[in-house]
Amino acid sequence: MAVIWYIALVVATGVERLVELVISKRNAERAFAAGGIEYGQKHFPWMVALHTGLLAACIAEAVLLDRPFIPALGWPMLVLVILSQALRYWCIAALGRQWNTRVIVVPGLHLVATGPYKWLRHPNYLAVVVEGFALPLVHTAWLTALTFTVLNAVLLLGFRIPTEERALGALAR
Q1: For the segment 140-162, what is each residue's pLDDT rounded down to a tens digit?
Q2: In sequence order, what are the residues at sequence separation of 6 or more whose Cβ sits closer than 8 angstroms to the Cβ of residue 14?
Q3: Largest Cα–Cα distance of the chain, in whole Å?
Q4: Closest CA to 106 of 20, 37, 12
């Protein structure tokens, strides 16, 4: 029965991502209408694939490898998942119309330094990292947690964060 609740959690997370894509698309259209310039288009499909794969792999590993729900691990991981979602939505609220799943810079806008951005340069990625290991571990899907964490680190550190830094540097000029 625990696996059914876990699948529901992962599906709810997927629905949440679809809502975020709607918000992102709306914000992207506004940004482009205001002269926004997109950076990092080449790595974006990889990000989409990785995050979609995370959700699919969570369910597949829990079901196909018959992973158990271990309360001492699962409950704390669920708390981390909830906290990561709260941080993600705090980031979205702080950035407002500037929030996007893509890297789009609108000339003339300033860096946001409120909300979690007051303390961290890339707080949304902290949410992604925590969710990336915590969501699978809610139901002991440790292979998924490990694989996503490694691939996400390569993508974030090798491509996404450097791309954002270049884009934010252009914004600061």
Answers
A1: 999 999 999 999 999 999 999 99
A2: 55
A3: 55
A4: 37
Quote the CA–CA distance of 117 and 127 in Å, as a whole number: 13
Q: Residue 46 burial (CB < 10 Å; 0-12/13-18/19+)?
A: middle
Tell me, what CATH number does 151's domain have? 1.20.120.1630
Q: How far apart are the first and last CA of the chain?
A: 55
Tokens read off for 87: 């941080």
For 107, the 3-state DSSP assignment is coil
Q: How far is CA 5 from CA 59, 102, 126, 147, 160, in A?
A: 11, 31, 25, 23, 33
Query: 13 with 55: CB under 8 angstroms?
Result: yes
Domain count, the chain: 1
Distance separating alpha carbons of residues 135 and 56, to the nearest angstrom: 12
The reported pTM is 0.93
The residue range of the domain holding 167 is: 2-172
* Cα-based distances in Å from 97 to 10, 31, 90: 27, 8, 13
Distance CA 132, CA 112 (A): 25
Residue 105, token pair as written in the block:
């810079």
Secondary structure (3-state) at 101: coil
